[in-house]
Amino acid sequence: MVRKTLSSRRFIKPSYAYLIEKKREGQEFTKEEIRYIIDSILDGEMPDFQMAAMAMAIFFQGMSAQETAILTEEMMLSGEVIDLSHIAKPKIDKYSTGGVGDKTSLVLVPLAVASGIVIPMMGGIDQDFAISSLDKLSAVPGFKADMGIDAFIEQLEKIGGAMVRQSAELAPADAKLYDLRKKTATIPSLPLITGSVLSKKLAEGAEGLVIDVKWGNGSFIRDLEQAKQLARSMTRVGRSMKRRCVALVTDMNQPLGDTVGTALELKEAIQLLKGEGPEDLQELVLKLGMEIVRLAGVAGSTLSAKQTVQRHIEDGTALEKLKEIVAAQGGDTSYIDDPEKFPTAKHIRKLPAPKRGYVHTINAAQIAKGVHLLGAGPDEDGNIDYAVGVSEIKKVGTQVKQGEPLMMIHYNDEAKLEQALEYFKAAYRLAPKRPTPPPLIVERVA
After folding, report:
1. What would the mean pLDDT of 323-338 be, rounded to a whole number?
2. Model confidence, pTM
3. Dihedrals φ, ψ of 210, to 5°?
């Protein structure tokens, strides 16, 4: 795909200060101005201090739906755009804003492929404390997350799915802007999130997108209304770019499932592909899976979508597709067949409940940070301790006795455990009365 030519009238380049002032005053950018901003970022012509001022102006003043759609398209066209039109099957991708214990992509990609859908999944940058799906898959010996675009397309043609690291050739303007947003505390800007996510996902060749927008203490979106606004922004811009889009707003005020870690979460994903595992994860996999098969046109009705998802889990075809994808990317599938082969921690100890009561609230981010300190997340050199993490997490509404474990901690290093314990202890709040657990799925936006 090539950029569309601008109208014949001559575009006079404005100063960056003028554009910053224009947005600061809440005015809308024209298509030409947005293209000029993206070109200037891509070419390195706009100084960092003015990029920072621009990002902050957008953060406070926002962008209209039309501006956001233009921004998304310009960032998408700043690099390679993969053409998958020669593949006859529907091409749908799934994106999550990132959550603690969220291993749904590890289940949904093979599940969708088993349903006859092509899933061109490239993993981007998650929150600093979250563990990406690719980090979890790297617990499988030999698994390679890096892949060139030609090899990526070839794997999609042969198998129907791939889970790889984001290619630097796709949406390079977004990569520069995202790096700046991290440094300037402008990550939560809704139009910039929308542009960032959709520019990369649509550059992968997806015809449609199912989005899981998480809100709560384990997400960078802490406000429910903001999460709903983001879901609406993404689906609206997706539609304006002629792509089918559905978003679910889901709760992230406690970890998803029973585990947080790398190998521990991968083992739980394998459980889910066998029709087992925690109820909350089963519910979310079912609902997101139904959205994917309906968006792809594989299933027409809600009942048909539910049956399709359940069938591919029950008959084992989804699990076989996970093995195919892992094998194609160099991984040892014997670990999928026998999850007990994954490394286990030298030590396991409980986090005792300080008193009797009900689990009233859990701060998922605190648990994630503690797990990261144990070594589950990549360190500065990219090393990951695949064995560490937490399991058997007591959820909101569970009654516990004093001394009963709130979770089991898997660790290899006593010094790291001491640091992590502070986060784990701070994560739980107990109360004498049973609270009402929050609904997992808050809203559907289509």
Report:
1. 97
2. 0.90
3. -105, 125
Q: How far apart are CA 155 and CA 6, in angstroms?
A: 36
Interatomic CA distance for residues 237 and 427, integer angstroms: 36
Sequence-ordered alpha helix ranges (H) in 25-77: 31-43, 48-61, 65-76
Q: Binning pLDDT at 50, 70 and 90, where does residue 7 land?
A: very low
CA nearest 362: which of 423, 441, 443? 423
Write out pLDDT tens, residues 121-179: 998 655 556 788 999 999 999 999 999 999 999 999 999 999 999 888 999 999 999 99
Length of the chain: 446
Here the tokens at position 21 are 């002032």
Q: What is the DSSP-derived secondary structure letter of residue 339? A: G
User: What pLDDT score was predicted for residue 8?
Assistant: 44
DSSP three-state, residue 394: coil
pLDDT in tens, 390-421: 999 999 999 999 999 999 999 999 999 999 99
Which bin fits 91, alpha (ψ -120 to 50), beta or left (φ > 0)? beta
pLDDT at 300 over 90: no
**Nearest alpha-carbon partner for 101 in 278, 258, 267:** 258
Structure tokens at 441: 């799925």
How far from 101 is each of 35, 266, 276, 393, 408, CA to CA, in Å?
A: 38, 10, 16, 10, 14
Residues whose CB is less than 8 angstroms from the CB of residue 421 and which lie 6 or more positions away in sequence, other chains included: 351, 370, 409
Instruction: Map residue 421 onto helix, strand or coil.
Output: helix
Measured CA to CA, the distance from residue 94 to residue 112 in angstroms comes to 10
**Contact, 58 vs 52, CB < 8 A?**
no
Helix axes 317-328, 263-273, angle to 10 degrees: 140
CA distances from 92 to 75, 83, 109, 220, 243 (A): 20, 13, 10, 25, 10
The burial class, CB within 10 Å (0-12 / 13-18 / 19+), for 437 is middle
d(CA 125, CA 166): 8
Q: Give the Cβ contact number of residue 7 at 10 Å.
A: 9
Interval 335-346 mean pLDDT: 96
